[in-house]
Amino acid sequence: MASSFKLRAGAVTLVEFLTSFAIVGVIAVLVGGIYLAHFRLFSNQNTAIDVSTQNKLALSEVSNTVRQSESIVDTCPSCGSDTTGTTILILRLWPQDATGEPIDPGTTNYDYILYKRNPGDTSKLIRITYAYSGSSRKNGTKVIATSMSNLAFAYDNGTPSAARQVTTSVTTTATTGTKTQTSTESDIANLRNK
Hints:
30% strand, elongated, 194 residues, 8 strands
């Protein structure tokens, strides 16, 4: 007796369907794993670049201002209780005219710039400018860098107001997933006028 079961041309059996579904699933898992691994790598590299950039921004800003400064001062008329030390730096600068050129300050008409970590969010380095009324510098507070975990100033003299050189050390830290990126850098800047 001949078999009466005949497969129609172009039909897919259940076994073929399950096999193809399993192959597609394995490929999807492999591609997804590769994608996630690359995403983590990209994210970690992006965080490392951000941490390094924040360090460079902070050091560049502070060092450039130190080089332009007339002197380091213990405090200033508008600084309140802030005083120069290992975590705060107060610089005295000549005021500027509208073109950015220095103006002779006489004996009391100076601009002051203060650097410290933000008391409300210590992960931020801030610059506070206290400008003389005749200066073109703008009064105010500006965030210079973020992701700060440490900020330290060291002076070439035991008395900061007599110092001619400032060493700024900055540590920035950021975490992505389970990986923490940390960068510590230092820069030495000499006051121009000493």
